[in-house]
Amino acid sequence: MVDKTMFLKFKHVVESALKSALDTTGYSIDDFYIEESAHSDLASSLSFRLASKYKQSPAIIAGTIADAITIPENSLIDRVEVAGAYINFFVSKKFLNDTIYEIFEKRDSYGAGHGKGRVIIEHTSANPNGPLHVGHIRNSIIGDTLARILKKVGYDVEVQYYANDMGRQIAIVAWALDRFGFDRQKKTDHAIADVYIRANQELEKDPDLSQQIDEMMQKIELGDERMIERFDRATDLAISGITSTLKRMNIHHDRFVYESKFVKDGEVADFLQELEGSGLAETIDGALTVPMPEFDKDLVIRRSNRTSLYVTRDLAYHRWKAGQCDRMIDVLGADHKLISSQLCYVLRVCGIKEPEIVIFEFVSLPEGSMSTRAGKFIPADDLLDQVEKQALVEVTKRRPDTGDDFRRRVSVPVGIGAVRYDIVKISPEKATTFDWESALDFDKLGAPFIQYSHARACSILRKTSGVPDSIDPSVLTGDAEISLVKQLARFSHVANTAASDLKPHIVAIYARELAEAFNQFYRMSPVLSAPDGLRDARIGLVECARIVLAGVLDVLGIDAPESM
Fold first, then answer.
1. 6-91: which CATH architecture?
2. For residues 253 and 242, what is the distance between their CA atoms, to the nearest angstrom?
3. pLDDT (tens digit, 9 = 90+) per residue, 31-72?
4. Residue 213 phi, psi (nearest 5)
5. pTM, two decimal places
6. Are 281 and 275 in contact (CB under 8 A)?
7. Which CATH class is domain 118-364?
8. In the CATH scheme, what is the code of domain 380-555?
9. Do 446 and 412 contact (CB within 8 A), yes or no?
10. HEC states along 143-207?
C-alpha cells in the first residue's frame, strides 16, 4: 500500500535517517521498530534489539546512532533526542506547514490512501426469522465501519449480507406463514418474529409436526419450485424489515447473497463431490464427514439423508467469494469461533483462500435500562427509538432557543451517532455495555462531542467573510495550534493502520483525540479577534479541522452536523 501523506513521508524520512546512521556506525538490523510515542512524534526502540546482538548497553547504542544522524536543511525532521534507550524524532515546521497545504489541496479526499485490490466484506447476516436485536448491532456497526475504512484507504469494496434462506429456522417461518395469520400492520420483520415464536410453541406441544419441517427442507434441497416460493416469501419479508433498520443506522449492503443460490447452481454438489473424490471427506454412518485432526470433533458436511448443512453451503459461498476478491473478510460473533475455524481449515486443505475473521464479543445493555420485553431479546428498533427520544431531550436542554424542527433534525443523527460510536470505540474482542446516558453525554468525549466540534468549526467559519485563498501557516506557533496540526496529519496513517489490522476502534479513538485537539485550540487561540495575518492563518486551520473532522465522522458512518 502506497501512501504519500505527510505523516508517512515523515516516517520514511525517519527510516532513511536511521538506515544511514546504522550504515555509518556498523550496526545491522532488519526492522527499525518505529512507532508513535507520547514523548515525541515518532520513536525507535531498535537499540533494545541491538543490545543482545552487540553485547552493549541499549542506551549507549541509542546515543551512538543518534549522534550519527544528520538532518539536512529543509527536512521534515526538526530534531533527534535520546531518552534512555529510545531515539525520539520531532517534526519540523516544514512538516506542519506542508500538512496544512496538503489539506487545502486535497480537501474532502484528504486522508485517502492508495490501497489496491478488491475486498468483499460480509457482516450482519442475521437469520431472517425476525428483527435485528441488540446483539446484532455490534456486528453491523463494526462491519460497516470497516467497509468505510477500507474504501477510504483505496480498496474496491463490496459489502455482502449472506442470507440464510434455506435453513431450519426459515423452514419454520415458511411453515408458520401458511398456518397462522400475518400481521400486516407491523414492521415485516417483527411480524415474522411473531409467527416464528408461535410456530415454535406449536412444535414444542406436538413434536410430530417436526416431520413436516424436515420434509420441507428436503424439498427445498431438491429444488421444489413451490417450496422455493414459500421460502423466498418468508425470507423477503424478514429482509425487508432488517434492511429498514440497517438504513436507519446508516448501514448499507451492496449485495444480498442467498445461500440457496449455491444449491440451485450445483456449487454445493460440485464441492461435495470434489471433497469426496480427493479423499478429504469420508462417509461415516451414511454422513459425509471431513476429518478434523486439529479439533475435538470431525465436521459433517452432508447428512445421511443427503441434505447439506449450513456450513456446507457456507463453504461453497466462500469458495465462490475467493475467486472474486483479493481480501475476504467475515465479521462474526464470538459464538462462531469454532465453526469459522473449521471452515477455514477445510478451505486451507482444499487450497482455497481463507477469509480474515473479525470476531467480536457481544454488546449488552445495563440491567433495567429498557424495561420492555423483560427477559426477551430487545429489538434494535426499540433501542434506536429510545436513544433518539433521549437525544431529543438532550438537544432540547442545550438549545432551548431553537424550534422543534431544528431539535428533531439534529437529535436523529446525534442519537444514531451515539449508538455507532459507543459500540465501535471498543476493540471488537472486548465485551461492551451500551449505556445511552453515557453515549449521549456531550461532555464525555463520545459522538456528540465530536459532532459538536465539527459544528463549532462551522459556526466559526460562518462568522468570517470566507476562508482566505492563501494563508501563511508559519505564523501558527502556539502549542495548541501545533498539536492540532499534528493530529490532522495522522488521519491517513490511522486509517491505514485500522484497514491493515481490521481494528475500527483505532479510528474512533483518533476522532476523539482530534476533537479534543480542536477544542483545546479553540480555547487557547482566539480566531476572530486575532491580528489580520494570524487571523487568516487560524481561519485556515479551522477550515482544515472542519475538513478532517467531517472526513473521520464519515468514515465512522456518523453525520457531521453544521449546527447543534
1. 2-Layer Sandwich (3.30)
2. 11
3. 999 999 999 999 999 999 999 999 999 999 999 999 999 999
4. -65, -45
5. 0.93
6. yes
7. alpha beta
8. 1.10.730.10
9. no
10. HHHHHHHHHHCCCEEEEEEEECCCCHHHHHHHHHHCCCCCCCCCCHHHHHHHHHHHHHHHHHHCH
